[in-house]
Specification:
373 residues, six-stranded mixed beta sheet, four-stranded parallel beta sheet, 14 strands
């Protein structure tokens, strides 16, 4: 159309009417699509019935930080994740998932402000379903009041099985998305690995099990360890270890060096929730703390927990690998896994991704930057 000459009033009127009709038709078609999108009623882990669209295209993950990795392994996609907690985003941006499924880095994080959900910002990403940790009642109520379908997930387990939580999340995600084959395959892989470990540990006596400590958070001002009712406790038990903090610590607790001297663990595992690396303990670089007296430090048995598609300590898609990795460190005389080959095979089979030697090195030796949660 040539806009050099002015339109007559009639022509302009006709043009505007045509545009309005076209716009209304588009809106009507859009509304019809939304109205006809199939919905499902699912029961979340608070036993609440939640109505959500089947195969949602716009997923937001809040305070249930590891869940985005569960979504990925259940669906082989992160394209649907349009929003995620900034702590989750930091882990993802330092993980191999950003290479396998780069869409994860497109997720918005601005809806979490000062540690809380900002509904106004959240609405801008137009969520179809929001996943939240079941213990955050305040956020769940706020989301429900805003009319946002919210699925609550428990981060606690009813057993000592370190795979229980992941398996529940995988099963629920399969129900939501209709992708049950992948979740079932990974659940079976975890069970197979655990059974293999159980069989090989069957004749190991308690006195031959290593005494293990999980260093959860650590710097020159704080030493916090994980004890009973924590995920680390489940990993230790499942891989033939004894948790030195189990009797003295419920959950996570700050302790002093005197307490750690009393425990004197054979092995120390350092989580990805702290910047501390094994070398910090080996070289005694922390002011006011002398780690050199400990058996684990003297024998160089201090290990940083890996970070694959997510941190290996919490429930995550690489959990079947975590079993093998920790079992081998706890009992190197029994387990001779080649973790490079194990990771290669697992990533090829379940993620359809050919991981490189350099990437495996990064998985097994995560940087301190990944700890900024």
């Amino acid at each position: 159309m040539n806009w050099k000459y002015p339109l007559s009033a009639i022509a302009l009127s006709a043009l505007l009417v045509g545009c309005n009709q076209s716009e209304n038709a588009n809106k009507s078609a859009s509304n019809e699509t939304m109205e006809t999108k199939e919905e499902a009623i699912i029961k979340d882990e608070l036993n609440r019935k939640v109505t959500i669209p089947m195969n949602p295209d716009r997923v937001v993950v809040g305070g249930i930080l590891p869940y985005f990795s569960t979504w990925y392994i259940a669906t082989n996609s992160t394209q649907e994740i349009v929003g995620m907690h900034p702590n989750s985003y930091n882990a993802a941006s330092h993980s191999i998932l950003k290479d396998i499924s780069p869409d994860i880095l497109k997720a918005d994080t601005s809806f979490i402000q000062n540690g809380e959900v900002n509904i106004e910002e959240l609405m801008k990403v137009n969520p179809e379903v929001y996943f939240e940790i079941a213990s955050d009642e305040k956020s769940i109520n706020k989301l429900e009041e805003a009319g946002i379908p919210t699925v609550a997930l428990q981060a606690t387990a009813d057993s000592d099985d370190p795979l229980e939580i992941l398996n529940r999340w995988l099963t629920l995600t399969g129900e939501i998305t209709g992708t049950t084959d992948r979740p079932d395959q990974i659940i079976q892989e975890g069970k197979k690995n655990q059974q293999e470990i159980n069989d090989k540990l069957a004749n190991v006596q308690k006195e031959d099990m290593p005494r293990v400590m999980i260093l959860q958070y650590h710097n020159d001002k704080e030493i916090s360890v994980a004890g009973s009712n924590m995920h680390g406790n489940r990993w230790i038990k499942a891989t033939g270890g004894i948790d030195v903090a189990e009797a003295d610590v419920q959950g996570i607790k700050a302790v002093n060096m005197e307490q750690i001297y009393n425990w004197d663990p054979d092995i120390i595992y350092i989580t990805n929730f702290t910047e501390t690396q094994p070398e910090d303990l080996f070289n005694n670089t922390i002011d006011g703390q002398d780690w050199s007296q400990l058996k684990a430090v003297k024998n160089k048995q201090v290990y940083k927990v890996p970070l694959g598609i997510y941190r290996w300590y919490p429930p995550n898609g690489d959990a079947p690998l975590m079993l093998k990795w920790m079992a081998q460190h706890n009992h190197p005389e029994i387990f001779d896994y080649n973790m490079t080959e194990e990771i290669k095979n697992y990533y090829t089979k379940f993620y359809n991704y050919n991981v490189t030697e350099e990437q495996i090195k990064d998985i097994l030796n995560p940087s301190s930057e990944a700890a900024k949660y």
